[in-house]
Amino acid sequence: MKTNLATYIDKEGNNMLHLAAELPSPNRLNIVSGAALQMQREMLWFQEIKKIMPNSYVIETNKKGQTPKEIFMKSHEDLQKKGEKWMKGTANYCMLVAALIATVVFPAAFTVPGGNNQDTGIPIFLETNWFRIFFISDAVAMLFSSSSVLVFLSVLTSRYTEKDFIKTLPQRLALGLGTLLISIVAMLLAFTAASFLVFQCKTPSVPIGIIVAAPVIPISLFVMLHYALWFDIFRSAFISNLLFRSQHKLFEARKEWQSPVCMQLRFGTKFKQMIRPSV
Questions:
Q1: What are the transmembrane regions (predicted)?
Q2: Alpha carbons 155 and 94: distance in angstroms, whole number
Q3: Alpha-carbon distances, residue 97 vs 32, 146, 226 (angstroms)
Q4: How far is CA 248 from the centre of its chain?
Q5: What is the mean pLDDT of the segment spanning 7-16?
Q6: pLDDT of residue 229
Q7: What backbone torsions phi and psi does residue 202 show, to the nearest 5 degrees?
Q8: Suppose 152 and one of 91, 119, 162, 227 were both cysteines; which one would form an S-S bond, judging by CB atoms 3.0 to 4.6 Å apart?
Q9: Could you tell me which residues are beta bridge partners of residue 116?
Q10: Residue 37: CB partners within 8 Å, gap ≥ 6?
């Protein structure tokens, strides 16, 4: 059945791949957010249809002399430009945030809370647990914010070809957002540890709840406000191969059912109509 359906053509000479190359309606494109992710979804859809088409139909031209690939490139030209603009804008703003975090946490490693011993130069709170938490969190924030800047820089300098939209760009964007989130969490954790170090002897005057809530509130807001975008990006980056995989196995019939005799017994005269020539 799958082979027969793939050979059908319409009155304009378009086969199934020609139709899959057309740009869908806006409500179909808006299933995912972001023009770059929409372009990736369209590329994956085109490739999935291409897999079930005979090789001769992949390069077949319609009555206008257009191949499926030519139709896809022409109809998705504007979407590709919008995807490049969206990807660069997102990477630019995220890289700015990562650079700000790196700017803040770098000097914090040398101006430790509580100061240093004037005789030895060793930090006063060196042996405390909160100081270890502060220093480790500050180092993690510095490491991941710098990594995030480099990842987003690679997004900005990408070639933005059609193949880049399938895996390379979504994975880089997901990696950059992941490292950015880790750096934000580590920076706020370092702030909490520094607050406990400074006010550890005066906790009654500074409510502990305020110190603990300081990192929780911005992290929660960051996750809630960007949840939908994050979900689309990570799904497109890491499970894109499963987006168009059928759960019902419609075309995976048993081999003995695929013979012409069995097909005619099951579908009667409809089967004779299905195997009509495609010309």
A1: 90-110, 130-153, 173-199, 205-230
A2: 11
A3: 24, 11, 15
A4: 26
A5: 88
A6: 82
A7: -130, 45
A8: 91
A9: 123
A10: 83, 170, 232, 233, 236
